[in-house]
Amino acid sequence: MEEHFGKTGGVVITFLYFFAICPLLWIYGVTITNTFMTFWENQLGFAPLNRGFVALFLLLLMAFVIWFGKDLMVKVMSYLVWPFIASLVLISLSLIPYWNSAVIDQG
């Protein structure tokens, strides 16, 4: 940044970037914790966990993945995308009997 905007401009842009990204990371941390807790309690039927420990564990897990670099993160996400696509296809196929063909017939 400093080479394009000078020292002061680089510092200003760095602070603006921090204040733009930091709230998004907080929201993401809260959202992923809530999603995990809901899944843990409602879908799996387990007893509620301490929210603070779950949030800390999930954030440390994400930091651990990021620590080992972009390549590992891309590899992990590439494995997760296939079950996600398969679940979308299976859900879509299971909903075919509930389609309303009257909408198509009107056209």
Structural description of this entry:
- The chain has 4 helices and no strands.
- The protein has helices at residues 2-43, 51-67, 70-94, 102-106.
- Helix 1 crosses helix 2 (51-67).
- The protein is extended and about 65 Å long.
Key phrases:
single chain, 107 residues, mainly alpha, 2 domains
- Average pLDDT works out at 87
What is the radius of gyration computed over CA atoms, rounded to a whole number of angstroms?
22 Å
Strand content: under 5%
Give me the number of helical elements: 4
Helix content class: over 70%
Quick one: overall form? extended
What about the largest sheet? none
Class per helix and strand makeup: mainly alpha
Total domain count: 2
Q: In whole angstroms, how far apart are the ends?
A: 57 Å
Q: Catalogue the unreliable spans.
A: none
Order of helices and strands: HHHH
The counted number of beta strands is: 0
Sequence-ordered SSE layout with sheet pairings:
Layout: H1 2-43, H2 51-67, H3 70-94, H4 102-106
Helix pairs in contact: 1-2
In short:
The chain has 107 residues and is mainly α. It has 4 helices and no strands. The protein has helices at residues 2-43, 51-67, 70-94, 102-106.
